[in-house]
């Protein structure tokens, strides 16, 4: 139970931080910021790696679902950071 | 690597994510911010791979190979004008990944991802619900912007009521799962309902409002990641997911204000079409 309280505390503090982090964002950065934080939400890759690598002998399903999750999350992460970088490069060239 | 070391590196990547998001809000530091966040992700992934609970690397390698190739191809081939729908698509994959992780946790009997107890089951239910809505909702948003689907609002009479009822059913199933009364059949029903909900929540919204919807779905995929973190008690998932979820809501609100929309309108999928002409999509 203590661990759960700690996790909930982390969650609440991170939510507050997330709210405070975004204040004034120039309109040109709306899409890159969305895209960048989208790539960060690919952090679920960590969970996917643990599922795919758990070597759960009881069921092939866990490993297969884990592999699917790793593939999807990797697309999210790799594609997300690359796309954000491309968008930002476009802005800096324009300036 | 021992668990406390893993958690210390997770803290490092969380700090890098925070710095990255902060830097992404300023034009001068935005490129560096994206890089910081990417390094944070690399740290989290490498440290996870060194975790002693990972026993086999074959499945990981296969998934990562497929994901990297597809991700690089998508990101480099896409037209610059198609960026918003690209983000929608990537975001949908993220939601799908959380969904798959939650189902794997449900099926796992023991090991690092196995869901246990009331909190574990509640977290599985919520991850499935939010992840599946993100998956199909993002697919619809992509379809509308890519003009695979008609951009206008599509719906039927009483779609809001339909969504409400579906949501109540979904939450009841989650309650049953949490109470430990659900089997795989009930989980499959929840997945189906959530996949349908993703479509019916987004399809009544006109194409001009899609950037706001994508920002909102991005926030959802963060919340799904945080919920997945609660399944397996993983701090980096909880913190990063909560960060993206919260900052995504704020960004959605900022974009709503910039485009003269109400946030509650987007949240409940009832944006009116009137005045949807004079916006530019960023």
TrEMBL record, chain A:
Location comes to: Cell inner membrane
Query: Where, by residue number, does the polypeptide cross the bilayer?
Result: 6-23, 35-54, 60-84
What UniProt keywords are attached to this protein's entry?
A: Cell inner membrane, Cell membrane, Membrane, NAD, NADP, Translocase, Transmembrane, Transmembrane helix
Q: What is its EC number?
A: 7.1.1.1
Membrane-topology annotation of the record:
Multi-pass membrane protein
Tell me, what does this protein do in biology? The transhydrogenation between NADH and NADP is coupled to respiration and ATP hydrolysis and functions as a proton pump across the membrane.
What this protein is called in its record is proton-translocating NAD(P)(+) transhydrogenase
Enzyme class label = translocase
Q: Which reaction does it catalyse?
A: NAD(+) + NADPH + H(+)(in) = NADH + NADP(+) + H(+)(out)
Residue stretches making up the NAD(P) transhydrogenase alpha subunit C-terminal domain: 8-93
Q: Which Pfam families match?
A: PNTB_4TM
């Amino acid at each position: 139970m203590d661990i759960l309280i700690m996790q909930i505390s982390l969650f609440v503090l991170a939510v507050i931080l997330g709210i405070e982090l975004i204040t004034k964002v120039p309109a040109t950065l709306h899409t890159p910021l969305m895209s960048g934080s989208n790539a960060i939400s690919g952090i679920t890759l960590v969970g996917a790696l643990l599922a795919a690598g758990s070597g759960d002998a009881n069921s092939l399903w866990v490993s297969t679902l884990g592999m699917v999750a790793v593939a999807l999350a990797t697309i999210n992460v790799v594609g997300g950071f690359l796309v954000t970088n491309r968008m930002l490069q476009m802005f800096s060239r324009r300036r | 690597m021992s668990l406390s070391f893993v958690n210390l590196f997770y803290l490092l990547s969380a700090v890098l994510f925070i710095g990255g998001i902060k830097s992404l809000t300023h034009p001068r530091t935005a490129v560096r911010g994206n890089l910081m966040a990417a390094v944070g992700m690399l740290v989290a992934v490498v440290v996870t791979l060194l975790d002693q609970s990972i026993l086999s690397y074959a499945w990981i390698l296969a998934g990562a190979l497929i994901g990297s190739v597809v991700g690089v191809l998508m990101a480099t081939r896409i037209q610059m004008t198609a960026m918003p729908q690209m983000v929608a698509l990537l975001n949908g994959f993220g939601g799908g990944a959380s969904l798959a992780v939650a189902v794997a946790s449900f099926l796992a009997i023991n090991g690092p991802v196995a869901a246990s107890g009331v909190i574990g089951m509640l977290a599985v239910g919520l991850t499935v619900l939010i992840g599946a809505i993100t998956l199909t909702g993002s697919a619809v948003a992509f379809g509308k912007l890519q003009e695979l689907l008609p951009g206008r609002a599509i719906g039927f009479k009483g779609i809001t009521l339909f969504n409400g009822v579906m949501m109540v059913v979904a939450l009841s199933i989650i309650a049953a799962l949490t109470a430990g009364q659900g089997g795989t059949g009930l989980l499959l029903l929840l997945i189906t309902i959530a996949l349908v909900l993703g479509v019916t929540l987004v399809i009544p919204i006109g194409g001009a409002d899609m950037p706001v919807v994508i920002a909102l779905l991005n926030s959802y995929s963060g919340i799904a990641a945080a919920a997945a973190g609660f399944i397996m008690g993983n701090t980096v998932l909880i913190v990063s997911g909560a960060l993206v979820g919260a900052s995504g809501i704020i960004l959605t609100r900022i974009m709503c204000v910039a485009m003269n929309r109400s946030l509650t309108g987007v949240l409940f999928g009832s944006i009116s079409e009137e005045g949807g002409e004079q916006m530019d999509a960023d």
